[in-house]
């Protein structure tokens, strides 16, 4: 078993709004920045694990969500919504 000393522990405080700032050493280790997504889960031993989300995978999940809502940009029937600034040209 790995001791806490070997894991380079850092601490963080939970605010009154139940928020935590992720320490810089952890952000660096996970290669995460502002607005990135992270995953929390518990493993078989009951430890909480934090992982960064694969940025390319997250991007394509966002694209698929947008396509489900608005249609594919390759689709001639894509629903762009009402054009509020439409102009008539001669």
TrEMBL record:
Alphabetical list of SMART domains matching this protein: SpoVT_AbrB (SM00966)
UniProt keyword annotations, A-Z: DNA-binding
Pfam (any one): PrlF_antitoxin
SpoVT-AbrB domain span: 9-55
UniProt xrefs under InterPro entries: PrlF_antitoxin, SpoVT-AbrB_dom, SpoVT-AbrB_sf
NCBIfam families: lp_hng_hel_AbrB (TIGR01439)
Protein name: SpoVT-AbrB domain-containing protein
């Amino acid at each position: 078993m790995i001791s806490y000393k070997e894991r380079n522990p850092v601490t963080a405080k939970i605010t009154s709004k139940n928020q935590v700032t992720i320490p810089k050493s952890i952000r660096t280790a996970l290669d995460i920045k502002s607005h990135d997504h992270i995953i929390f889960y518990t493993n078989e031993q009951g430890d909480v694990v934090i992982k960064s989300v694969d940025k390319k995978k997250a991007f394509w999940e966002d694209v698929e969500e947008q396509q489900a809502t608005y249609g594919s940009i390759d689709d001639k029937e894509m629903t762009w919504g009402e054009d509020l600034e439409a102009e008539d040209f001669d």
